């Protein structure tokens, strides 16, 4: 029977490698396919900075929802959810297992669960976006911290789009944004969720190594080539690594500072990912640093 298997966890924990190993052990290309659940790997051309696995390294396993949208497009959770659910259904209709793989918690939850999102008010949204343009994301983040410190802790100070959304929800509901966050109702997809993590110090080292490799592999040139389009995008331009390199290309910081800022921001993001995933008790956590990881994952899947 075809299954939905989720492989999630903080950035640099080793999700991609584990997912490929699982797919191979389940029967390879004839038995399993991978569906991306990383909110930045959906963008075309954002390869190095998102650690997108090259086609040559995909071991013949079909990969879906990579390179879907141009960098100018601000992808919504609803857009992603529609495509992800349809893709999983198509894979399973062919009698194969679908592996949903990534670290974007909201994308994963929106795909497998029936969520109810808070409403919106176009006038409030327009006013807050004007204030964002005038005052900047950092100023609005300070405002958010004053009215909802939990939400402020989960949202990067540079992520103006999410800050505006949080402030909008607070204003129109009169309640903290965190109180209005989508929560799981009945699952839409029955899934086995595998959480992959490592000790904090080891993960920090892996993040720094990953950033060094991205610089070595040409992240700056990748961002330079994408710059005309990426600066138009409200989402892609704030991606880890890309936002920092854009600051370097504008002459706002040195290249070394951009690299150091990327490491710091990525470590902070990993802590936020852990916080998000910690709320879901259905996740079976695996220690990526322990031996027998693949066997442990398969035992959990067979459950």
In short:
The protein is α/β, with parallel strands linked by helices. The chain is 50% helix and 9% strand. It has two domains: 4-115 and 183-302, 3-Layer(aba) Sandwich (Rossmann fold), CATH 3.40.50; 122-180, Histone, subunit A (Orthogonal Bundle), CATH 1.10.20.
Keywords:
single chain, 303 residues, Rossmann fold, Histone, subunit A, six-stranded parallel sheet, 12 helices
Report what the structure shows:
The chain is an alpha/beta fold and 303 residues long. The protein has two domains: 4-115 and 183-302, Rossmann fold, CATH 3.40.50.300; 122-180, Histone, subunit A (Orthogonal Bundle). 50% of the residues lie in helices and 9% in strands. It has twelve helices and six strands. Helix 2 (77-93) packs across helix 3 (105-112), helix 8 (200-217) packs across helix 11 and helix 9 crosses helix 10. The longest helix has 23 residues, at 255-277.
Average of pLDDT: 92
Q: Low-confidence runs (pLDDT<50, min 5 residues)?
A: none
Strand content: 5-15%
- Give the helix/strand class: alpha/beta
> So, the CATH homologous superfamily of the largest domain?
P-loop containing nucleotide triphosphate hydrolases
Major sheet attributes? 6 strands, parallel
What is the element layout, followed by pairings?
Blueprint: E1 4-8, H1 15-25, E2 32-36, E3 63-64, H2 77-93, E4 97-101, H3 105-112, H4 122-135, H5 137-147, H6 149-154, H7 160-173, E5 191-197, H8 200-217, H9 219-230, H10 242-249, H11 255-277, E6 284-287, H12 293-302
Parallel strand pairs: 1-4, 1-5, 2-3, 2-4, 5-6
Helix pairs in contact: 1-12, 2-3, 4-5, 4-7, 5-7, 8-11, 9-10, 10-11
């Amino acid at each position: 029977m075809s299954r939905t298997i989720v492989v999630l966890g903080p950035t640099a924990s080793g999700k991609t490698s584990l997912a490929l190993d699982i797919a191979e052990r389940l029967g390879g290309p004839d038995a399993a396919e991978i569906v991306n659940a990383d909110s930045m790997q959906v963008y075309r051309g954002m390869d190095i900075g998102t650690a997108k696995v090259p086609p040559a390294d995909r071991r013949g396993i079909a990969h879906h929802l990579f390179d879907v949208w141009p960098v100018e497009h601000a992808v919504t959770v609803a857009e992603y959810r529609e495509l992800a659910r349809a893709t999983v259904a198509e894979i399973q209709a062919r009698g194969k297992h679908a592996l949903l793989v990534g670290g974007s918690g909201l994308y994963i939850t929106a795909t497998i669960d029936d969520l109810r999102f808070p409403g919106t008010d176009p006038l409030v949204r327009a006013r807050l976006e004007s204030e964002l343009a005038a005052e900047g994301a950092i100023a609005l983040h300070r405002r958010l911290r004053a009215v909802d410190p939990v939400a402020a802790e989960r949202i990067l100070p540079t992520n103006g789009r999410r800050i505006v959304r949080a402030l909008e929800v607070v204003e129109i509901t009169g309640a903290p944004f965190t109180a209005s966050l989508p929560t799981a109702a009945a699952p839409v997809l029955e899934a086995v969720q595998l959480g992959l993590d490592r000790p904090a110090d080891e993960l920090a080292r892996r993040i720094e190594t990953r950033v060094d490799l991205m610089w070595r592999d040409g992240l700056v040139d990748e961002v330079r080539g994408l710059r005309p389009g990426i600066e138009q995008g409200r989402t892609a331009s704030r991606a880890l690594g890309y936002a920092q390199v854009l600051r370097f290309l504008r002459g706002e910081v040195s290249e070394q500072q951009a690299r150091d800022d990327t490491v710091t921001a990525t470590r902070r993001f990993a802590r936020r990912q852990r916080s998000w995933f910690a709320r879901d008790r259905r996740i079976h956590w695996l220690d990526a640093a322990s031996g027998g990881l693949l066997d442990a994952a398969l035992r959990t899947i067979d459950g």
